[in-house]
Amino acid sequence: MRKFDYSIVRNPEIFQQNRLKAHSDHEFFSNESAVEEGTSDFKYSLNGVWKFAYARNYNAAIKDFYEGAYDCHAWDEIHVPAHIQVEGYDVPQYANTQYPWEGHDNPRPGEIPEYFNPVASYVKYFELPEEIVGKPVYISFQGVESGMALWLNGTYVGYSEDSFTPSEFELTDYLKEGENKLAVMVFKWTAGSWCEDQDFFRFSGIFRDVYLYTIPEVHVQDMKIQTLLDDTYQEASLVLDLSATKVGSYSMELRDGEETVIRGNGELAETTHIAVPIHGPNLWSAEDPNLYDLIIQIFDENMELQEIIKERVGFRRFELIDNIMCLNGKRIVFKGTNRHEFCSSTGRVLPDEVIRQDLINMKRNNINAIRTSHYPNKTAFYRMCDEYGFYVIDETNLETHGTWDAILSGFETMDFMLPGKRKEFEKLVLDRANSMYQRDKNHACILIWSCGNESFGGKDINEMSKFFHREDPNRLVHYEGVYHDPFAPLDYTDTSDMVTTMYTPAADIARYLKEHREKPFIECEYTHSMGNSNGAMHKYTELAYEELLYQGGFIWDYIDQSMTLRDRYGVEYQGYGGDFGDRPSDYSFSGNGIAYGGESRESSPKMQEVKYNYQNIVAKVTDQKVVIENRNLFLNTSEFDCVVLLEKEEKLIKKAILVTDVAPLSEGTYPLPFDVPYDRGEYMVTVSFRLKEDTLWADRGHEVAYGQTVVGTYEKKAKSTKKVTVVEGWHNIGVRGDEFEVIFSRIHGGLISYKYGGMQMLKSIPKPNFWRAMTENDIANLLPFRAGQWKLASMWPTIKYNDGLRMTNYEITKQEDHVEVEYTYHLPTTPAKDCKLKYDVYGDGEVQVTMTLPPSADVGELPEYSVVFAMDSDFDHLKWYGRGEAETYPDRNHAKLGVYRNKVSDNMARYLVPQECGNKQDVRYASVTNDRGRGLLFRCNQLGFSALPYSVHELDNATHSVELPQPHFTYIRVGKQMGIAGDDTWGAKTHPEYMLDNSKEMKISFSFQGL
Predict the structure, then answer these.
(1) Strand 806-807 and strand 651-657: pairing?
(2) Do 214 and 136 contact (CB within 8 A), yes or no?
């Protein structure tokens, strides 16, 4: 009898023992009732509470716990599925490219850490369900990270690695009557862990479902479904290849809803090939995910029903036509995102409803494609992608980024490449490719197989690509890392069917494609979404319609990898790498989502830009017409309601339905359904495309695309001609009218008081501001090194000089209808600069603010140019007429012009690290008021506007939300700031056109007035 030998855990050539062959994930049922319920009655879940023991390494583990006589009933308990790190053992560890054991141990590839390598021992006592007594019994572990050894009743059953695909074993010969003892030893790191260096939290344990199952005497073990379309895409062949345990017979039916499309029957051999012609099938796409129901009944030789198989089938053809990727004959554009399986409370243990929530949110925001970064997801994900309509790149569980880094950094030579051309790893990576392929091969959503991520290049990965091409000629193969392998141009150009890169600027892609026309091009990771990011994303999405060979990309990534923690005072927050005492760690680099972590999984403000850039209908609106470009491949615009709105600020003037009929990939021009007034003021014309009917993912009326234009000019308020009273003192000058009073200080250097209706509105002196809280992009590209003096200038502008012994007096000019007071602020910069801040006070209480700065490029890049005000935090209601409703920035400014309201605190984006957030672009006016409607109205001249409960410096000082103080003030900034960048978060700067040009004099002007 074979015994478990621990040495196999550190042997990359042994990655399984006695594991069953990988097979399709089709469900099978014993009767129609089970089919209707959707749960296989051949399966019996072992999820729940198991007995558990933890050891920090194998030497400390209990070696004979699996023996039948060893009583584990008094052991601790743990839930399955779950990571041990969220059940109180070990800690979560976030690492990006570095291997998680670096600094603790120093194994070479194939070896494993010995000093710290947690071992989890699981035991499940169970009695065999009566229904399967005497039948063959199997066990399926859908996901165990990263290696597992299995015993039943003291007998060694087998071993398996590859965390993210099923490991199945037959238990029949090891079962006994009554109570059975199932024992599993899970190793956190195995030899295969060298191939699991993904940018994610490092966990271990049994983290996906575990179940027993039986099979009937005649059972389809594996099935391959192909939907082969001819060149007209009107005629198809449904091809089935069935592998059965015994001969028998079958009957099959293909249904389109209630309609039966085909019906047939035949003899079932151990291998059976079936090909059935289908005329004019309804084709599957992300836009219109038509699925057929395939029902196969399996009978034994006596015509006794053995099982019923039900699968959903999508007819579609994916191919290269003239080096362009096409779906059903149409050029495809991937409007994608990468997605980790991740939940803030359970890690990579995802309930189906959480997956569904993510997919619904993606559909609502025009995302049509997902890359499973960087491992196969649980099988329910693919079924939902079939149903909802997503184009999927299914990625093999392979990443060796740490070894890649070692080569590029000069620590190792090219022969260190992993897997490279290492024979000892070749079968392991091919096994992972096969396990993914066999399980997932029947899903219409999967268009592309991926060999893995960031594992350089070499022969082993090339062999993976050959495997996919050989087994599945109807899909393409993707692998990005080969283009960094210096040997690839010579030997492995066929590894990837497409040129695929990461974070290449759009302009560089365009330049590359001018010379290289052999393959299509995608960005498998782009527009890095760390913190406040995704600036200039539109350059990529526009390129996809300018250059046919560029076919889109996948945002990195969908959701913040954050975990819910509590600080020492019991306050809940979202934690990231390093917050668990995990070292080494890559800290907040886990927060790259366009959706927040936490239980809500809500869209972050960045999603607003994503939805606009990914919309499939472009409406270019003028004051008389709309030009509609339909970028859908298969849907006519008549499938949507087109609603045209005419608004003047908050007021809806007109609303009309425009009937459109623009064919897919076509353009049409329509006159507006009403005349736009040309009287005084500013009007907004919005053309909105909305769902006509309820869908799986949104209700009727949900907006899928829009275009907007502004007609006319925003009317500025006329200056008051009321008289003002001026009170001049030695140290202060006062200006008052019927409803207000203003005091300027000579010795304190600024506007020290603004009362309106008897209420003091200001908590401190407004000051020039040249700084924003640094974004993670800013920090990564070392903006503080280039612009750091502007932070000092923002913290300590002063009217004083000569070591504080002298001061520059304010200048007062009295006009007939207003008073001008101008301050000169000396800035602590090198070279020294002065900034002038002028106030014009009018008789109705309006104060015009003008700030002027001479050329200052010699000081450094200018992050922001604004005036900052502080009000009491009771002033917490914000209303603005500008872009919204989410925050906008110069390079992330595709948002509707309108009037919006929220609470000041709502503008604090929940980025993992507090940073710049909440800005509004193109603001005409904004008010900040208290519960009684008292406060300040700012007339902004289409400048940027921000109202937050924290200053830029408080935000800079915090690394987590719980480190921010209790709010005392509402901080208002009016002015301009640079774009927030986002091509990547390790050096990419804001694009030049979105920078502030401080090589010349800068000037802003706006006003405020009490309410």
Answers:
(1) unpaired
(2) yes
Secondary structure of residue 313 in the 3-state scheme: strand
Identify the sign of the CA torsion 529, 534, 539, 541: positive
**If you write DSSP's letter for every residue of 339-407 in order, what string do you get?**
----BTTTBT---HHHHHHHHHHHHHTT--EEE-TTSPPPHHHHHHHHHHT-EEEEE-S-B-HHHHHHH
d(CA 331, CA 325): 6
CA distance 631 to 462: 35
pLDDT tens digits, residue range 442-494?
999 999 999 999 998 899 999 999 999 999 999 999 999 887 766 555 578 88
Check if the beta carbon of residue 388 is closer than 8 Å to that of residue 369. no
Is 525 an active-site residue?
yes
- CB neighbour burial string for 512-546, b if at least 16 within 10 angstroms, e if fewer: bbeeeeebbbbbbbbbbbbbbbbbbbbbbbebbee
Q: Which of 984, 981, 979 is nearest to 995 (CA)?
A: 979
Length of the chain, in residues: 1011
> Could you write out the DSSP letters of every residue in 944-1011?
EEEEESS-HHHHHH-SSGGGSPPP-EEEEEEEEE-----S-SSSPPPPGGGS--TTS-EEEEEEEEE-
Identify whether the C-beta of residue 334 lies closer than 8 Å to the C-beta of residue 527.
no
Query: Is 287 part of the annotated catalytic residue set?
Result: no
421 pairs with which residues across the strands? Answer: none
Round to whole Å and give the CA distance between 867 and 765.
10
The token pair that represents 418 in the structure block: 């992993």
DSSP code of residue 784: H
Cis preceding-peptide flag for 528 (omega within 30 of 0): no
Amino acid of residue 1004? I
**Active-site residue among 196, 480, 523, 525?**
525
Residues 695, 128: Cα–Cα separation, whole Å: 43
What 8-state DSSP symbol labels residue 714? P
Q: What are phi and psi of 555, to 5 degrees?
A: -60, 140
Helix (H/G/I), strand (E/B), else coil: 897: strand
Q: Where are the beta strands (DSSP E) in 559-663?
A: 563-566, 572-575, 617-621, 625-630, 640-648, 651-657
Residue whose entry in the numeric block shows the structure tokens 């005392």: 968
Q: Which of 306, 305, 311 is nearest to 215 (CA)?
A: 306
What pLDDT shows up at residue 408?
Answer: 86
Q: What is the pTM of this model?
A: 0.97
Q: Which residue type does 46 have?
A: L
87, 311, 395, 454: the active-site residue: 454
CA dist., res. 843 & res. 737, Å (int): 5
> Mind spelling out the 3-state secondary structure of 481-543?
HHHHCCCHHHHCCCCCCCEEEECCCHHHHHHHHHHCCCCCEEEEEECCCCCCCCCCCHHHHHH
What is the mean pLDDT for each group of 10 consecutive residues in the chain (1011 residues)? 90 97 97 92 97 97 96 97 97 96 93 96 96 95 97 98 97 96 98 97 98 98 98 97 98 95 96 97 98 98 97 98 98 98 97 98 98 97 98 98 90 91 96 98 98 94 97 97 67 90 96 96 98 98 98 98 96 96 95 96 98 98 97 98 96 97 98 92 97 98 98 92 92 95 96 97 98 98 98 97 93 92 97 98 97 98 98 98 98 98 98 98 98 98 98 98 97 98 97 98 98 97
Distance CA 687, CA 705 (A): 8
Asked if residue 645 lies in contact with residue 655, where contact means CB atoms within 8 angstroms, the answer is yes
Dihedral angle sign, alpha carbons of residues 982, 984, 989, 993: negative
Q: For the chain, what is the largest distance between any 2 Cα atoms, rounded to a whole number of angstroms?
A: 112
Instruction: List, in order, residues 6 or more apart from 321 with CB less than 8 Å away.
Output: 329
